[in-house]
Write a structure and sequence with these properties.
The complex is a heterodimer. Chain A is mainly alpha-helical. In chain A, about 80% of the residues lie in helices and about 0% in strands. In chain A, α1 crosses α8 and α6 packs parallel to α10. The longest helix of chain A has about 35 residues. Chain A is elongated and about 65 Å long. Chain B is an alpha/beta fold. Helix content of chain B is about 35%, strand content about 30%. In chain B, the strands form three sheets. Chain B has a six-stranded mixed sheet with strand order 5-6-7-3-8-9, with helices on both faces. In chain B, α3 packs across α4. The longest helix of chain B has 18 residues. Classes of the chains: A mainly alpha, B alpha/beta. Chains A and B meet through α1, α7 and α14 of A and α2 and α3 of B.
């Protein structure tokens, strides 16, 4: 049975340890937020200023769009009047999507890797494991402590990004053009599912490595699938219909659930204590 | 309350506990003593259910800690050597956090506890800035938050000043007498244990060498009877009437007798020739018995 009181106490204590340390929260919160403000302004101004060579370079992508299966994004881009509008629309609604998968990974990695090995390095893991709180509750608290700030930072970044995108590209569109409907399943389903996946793996790594550094090195490997997604951009991942994105999100949630069950079953207090506490 | 039967624990090739057996009765204060690396901390961890023995039977409050660890941990208060406090939280925040983990429902309990251990003035300071003694007291307050019926204390007085030591030992005695709390106390400072413990388990290289009160241990493992006498007798040489003797730096004379039966005669003889102010039997205190037992085990 889950110990809700202990889960809230552990998660709150872990989140507080992030906010209490400027070296932890500054890169975690500020980098995504700065990117969310600066990037749309740079992209909008580039699109507005694009002429000649840039437009011809983007023509390759516009041509690629034409060859992809029928989708709402393709239809909208096709209906836009100027090349600048098309470039801005594709940049904001298509190329930026992996960025919003990257933000929760960045925001969650430090906290999730720190979850167990950090307690070990500070000499507090022993006290935590000696409490009458079952491992499932401790694990859940550790996951929540990484998941909630990561999703919070990601959503705030997304809203900031949307506001900056619409404001800076207003001269091009004269109306709100961001976000495309595909962002809804991406932000509300795929992004939390991907970040939960990364957090589960990181917390599991954290329970097994001997130092935070070692955990961080291993956890960094999780960026590799994201690079695959970025490459996949060129094959039209974001051009998929909302229904297919929802299906992908559902598959990811199922993978997370299965992973959660496997990890919880394998987390053994005595094993963790004997391997991590001296 | 606590039963340990033939318990063995290995870490790879290293044997931490070997065929260890002992028991602790309800409300008893038991001293678990032994040299460094004897297996005391591993034993405490086995009792808490965070280390699983390779073989043997353990029961704490009727539960097997390996199988029903949460039931056991909800009944025990543990003080580890490092106190395991969060350095970035204040003293009171540490207690409030652990109160939630331990299911201590009374919201005033953390404040009461921190005051009880004399840390009220410092409760809003970060625990990382506390001295070793303050951390130890906060660790004890933490261990007692949920009013456990069993206390497992690993070196509870290390790092404390004399007043702190006295306070901790008095608190342990009070808990045992008034609340019937069962206490297992690990320490190297044997004379401190003698003031609170009723019985002892002497452990070496993972094995219990003996269990009992000091008197029982002394009787079952007899040795030379050492008597320290505060007297103005002028000792010449290294013997008095055939009894080996030497003057100690304290000014007292130490006599080594073959048995305690010979003590009255020695004191009578001394009194005839000089003044005798005090007599202390040293061969039957905990420290002497402990050294006899551990040295005997090493000789074997």
């Amino acid at each position: 049975m889950m110990n809700r009181r202990a889960i809230i106490a552990i998660a709150r204590k872990d989140i507080r340890s992030i906010t209490a340390n400027i070296q932890v929260w500054l890169p975690m919160f500020m980098v995504p937020i700065i990117f969310s403000v600066l990037l749309p302004i740079i992209v909008a101004f580039s699109a507005r200023a694009s002429q000649g060579d840039i437009v011809s370079d983007m023509q390759i992508i516009l041509d690629m769009l034409e060859k992809l299966p029928e989708s709402s994004l393709r239809r909208i881009v096709g209906s836009l009047r100027t090349d600048q509008q098309k470039i801005a629309y594709i940049m904001f609604n298509y190329f930026m999507s992996p960025f919003f998968l990257m933000i929760p990974l960045m925001a969650a990695s430090t906290v999730s890797i720190d979850s167990f090995v950090g307690e070990k390095e500070r000499g507090t893991l022993e006290g935590l494991l000696l409490a009458s709180v079952n491992m499932r509750s401790i694990f859940t608290a550790k996951v929540l402590a990484a998941f909630l700030p990561a999703i919070g930072v990601s959503l705030v970044s997304f809203v900031l990004f949307g506001v900056c995108a619409n404001v800076s590209a207003w001269p091009l569109f004269g109306k709100i053009f961001f976000p495309h409907i595909n962002w809804a399943p991406l932000v509300l389903l795929v992004m939390p599912a991907v970040s939960l996946f990364a957090i589960l793996i990181n917390v599991f790594i954290s329970a097994r490595v001997s130092t935070f550094q070692a955990g961080y090195q291993l956890g960094a490997l999780l960026v590799l699938p994201l690079l695959a997604v970025m490459i996949g951009q060129f094959t039209g991942f974001m051009l998929l219909d909302t229904g297919i994105l929802l299906a992908i999100g559902a598959i990811l949630v199922s993978v997370d659930y299965a992973l959660l069950r496997i990890i919880v079953r394998r987390l053994d207090r005595a094993w963790l204590f004997e391997s991590q506490v001296r | 309350m606590i039963q340990v039967e033939d318990v063995t624990k290995r870490y790879g090739e290293q044997r931490a506990v070997a065929s260890l057996s002992f028991h602790v009765a309800d409300g008893e204060i038991l001293g678990l003593i032994g040299p460094n690396g004897a297996g005391k901390t591993t034993t405490i961890r086995i009792l808490c259910g965070v280390v699983k023995p390779n073989s043997g039977k353990v029961r704490v409050a009727g539960y097997d800690p390996g199988e029903r660890g949460d039931e056991v941990r909800s009944r025990i208060g543990v003080l580890t050597e490092t106190a395991a406090l969060y350095p970035n939280l204040s003293g009171i925040e540490n207690l409030r956090f652990f109160a939630k983990l331990y299911g201590a429902d009374d919201p005033d309990r953390p404040d009461e506890s921190i005051e009880e251990f004399g840390l009220g003035e410092h409760k809003n300071r970060k625990a990382g800035t506390y001295s070793t003694g303050m951390k130890k007291r906060l660790g004890l307050a933490k261990a007692l938050l949920h009013k456990p019926s069993i206390l497992l204390l690993d070196e509870p007085t290390s790092g404390l000043d004399p007043a702190g030591i006295a306070m901790v030992l008095e608190e342990i005695e009070r808990l045992s007498k008034e609340k019937g709390v069962t206490v297992v106390l690990c320490s190297h400072v044997l004379h401190q244990l003698e003031t609170v413990c009723r019985s002892y388990v002497i452990i070496d290289r993972g094995q219990a060498l003996a269990q009992g009160t000091v008197r029982e241990l002394a009787e079952s493992h007899p040795g030379p009877c050492i008597v320290e006498v505060d007297t103005d007798y002028a000792l010449e040489g290294n013997a008095h009437c055939g009894v080996p003797a030497r003057r100690l730096p304290t000014g007292h004379i130490q006599f080594i007798l073959s048995s305690r039966d010979k003590v009255p005669r020695l004191i009578r003889e001394l009194s005839q020739n000089a003044s005798v102010y005090s007599v202390a039997l040293k061969g039957e205190d905990l420290q002497s018995v402990y050294f006899r037992l551990t040295e005997g085990a090493h000789d074997e």
